[in-house]
Write a structure and sequence with these properties.
The chain is an alpha/beta fold. The chain has helices spanning 15-22, 26-33, 62-65, 84-92, 96-106, 120-136, 141-153, 156-166, 170-175, 241-249, 264-274, 287-299, 319-323, 329-338; strands at 56-58, 68-70, 179-181, 186-192, 198-205, 210-214, 222-223, 234-239, 254-257, 278-282, 306-310. This is DNA primase.
Length: 352
């Protein structure tokens, strides 16, 4: 092991206590972390992370200790001290602290601090692994550079214009790295994949009232603000960058999705690293908005301890319209508390 199993954290369980609580339960924990259940049968399968054919398998003690193996990207040669926690780190793409937080939340143990020290050996291995992934499947250099160019073109005057027209605070737009495209006469918002790489751009023309996307993964991506850290007690999820910026303007921790159902997998990975205690889906007051919110809530049911669906109160029809009116953070939180915790529709429950 590269970390001490016997040294307890002040007023918190030791890592040994966490491992003891999860002994015999690692199969479910790894499934929740993202490894498909059929791949934990002890036979060889394609790797759930690197995708290599016939190179991944679960070790015989997977239930007791959570140990898995990939010939290429997760084995004794690439990771020092393979156990359930490092297996969870690997499949979630998370650091040591986030993996511990995820486990402590799932098994109702006291939470681990977000600044829990990550063992140097594991940190180095994860960084090298992430670098290898990016080298094999690099983001579009063109779209990433274009995004930076657009950000550089967003002058203070343009930021004020966007802020004034959308009734949003400038710092919220800056956290979403808003840019300006003169050739398109539109503001730009970068979308990222589950690894934080720029995967596309959402363009917004205030003059024409139109939105469209650029990039290879144009219909999929997340709008993640700068400075969002784990763990998050309550995370708001809105559709589109404008609604996300509206939440941020009220001081609400929020990420945006570019399209409800298209973002399922990306959102699952992001939530596994953010470890929110509760997710609040902000949906428009329309059949498509509510229906899409429910579909997405079903897909991430295992990524949060509770989920709520919130629609704007009458007379507002959209989240952006509601949040950019005279609403305050207290108004939004009151609306959230009035909503029942969401249950999957097959259980017969629905959102308020």
């Amino acid at each position: 092991m590269t970390y001490s199993e016997e040294t307890p954290l002040p007023s918190l369980p030791s890592v040994a206590s966490l491992l003891s609580a999860t002994h015999g339960k690692w199969r479910d924990a790894l499934i929740d972390g993202g490894i498909p259940a059929p791949k934990l049968d002890g036979e060889r399968h394609s790797c759930p992370r690197c995708g290599g054919w016939n190179r991944f398998y679960a070790l015989p003690d997977v239930d007791q200790h959570g140990r898995v193996h990939c010939d290429r990207c997760f084995n004794a040669a690439t990771v020092v001290g393979v156990d359930g926690i490092t297996s969870l780190q690997w499949v979630m793409g998370a650091d040591f602290g986030s993996a511990c937080i995820s486990l402590s939340n799932r098994y109702d143990l006291p939470g681990f601090p977000a600044n829990l020290r990550v063992p140097i050996a594991i940190t180095k291995t994860l960084q090298e692994y992430a670098a290898a992934l990016r080298a094999e499947d690099p983001p579009s250099t063109d779209i990433a550079q274009i995004s930076l160019d657009f950000q550089a073109a967003a002058t203070e005057e343009k930021l004020r214009e966007c802020s004034r027209c959308l009734n949003l605070q400038e710092p919220s737009l800056q956290r979403l790295e808003v840019g300006w495209s003169q050739s398109h006469e539109a503001f730009t918002f970068p979308m990222e994949d589950g690894w934080g790489r720029v995967s596309g751009l959402r363009l917004l023309s205030l003059k024409r009232g139109e939105t469209w996307s650029l990039g290879g993964a144009a219909t999929e991506g997340l709008f993640v603000p700068i400075g969002l850290v784990a763990p998050t007690s309550r995370l708001y999820i809105a559709e589109g960058p404008v609604a996300a910026a509206a939440c941020l303007s009220l001081g609400l921790p929020c990420i945006g999705s570019s399209g409800r159902l298209q973002c399922e997998t990306l959102l699952q990975y992001k939530l596994m690293t953010l470890c929110p205690m509760e997710c609040v889906f902000m949906t428009d007051q329309t059949g498509m908005g509510i229906g899409g919110g429910r579909e997405l809530a079903d897909s991430i049911a295992n990524c949060s301890r509770s989920i709520r669906l919130v629609v704007p109160p009458k007379p507002y029809s959209t989240i952006s319209e509601w949040l950019t009116s005279s609403s305050t953070r207290a108004d939004v939180e009151e609306q959230v508390e009035a909503c029942t915790v969401y249950s999957r529709r097959e259980s017969g429950s629905s959102a308020s």
